[in-house]
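Readers outside the structure-tokenisation community will struggle with the description of the input data as it stands. I therefore recommend that a typical entry be quoted early in the introduction. An entry of this sort, consisting of the sequence and the corresponding backbone structure tokens, reads as follows:
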Amino acid sequence: MEKISLTALAREHLEKARAASSGRSSHTVYGGHEHSLRQVLLALTAGNGLDDHESPGEATLQVLQGRVRLSTEQAGWEGSAGDHLVVPLTRHALAALEDSVVILTVAKKLGPHV
């Protein structure tokens, strides 16, 4: 059993994001390429995010702090602290509307080319 303080991790990575030219920082909380479940903490400063990209498969975002916008070509959804967003299975982008921290959870099929 491993216990991690998401509050402390969020604080640490938001500081790193503020210092980074990209305005973001990430940390794998659980899993990795050899696991079917992967959880990544993403810290983003206001105005920064992840450009339009393919869906990683089944995924959700849990907003820990701040406000974000998850969008596709057709629609967009805003989330704030405490919100849980289902990531669409189409191309999408994530933008921080204010300094924010989210947990991205991805469930991937395991196979020989993972």
Summary: Residues 33 and 94 are 22 Å apart (CA to CA).
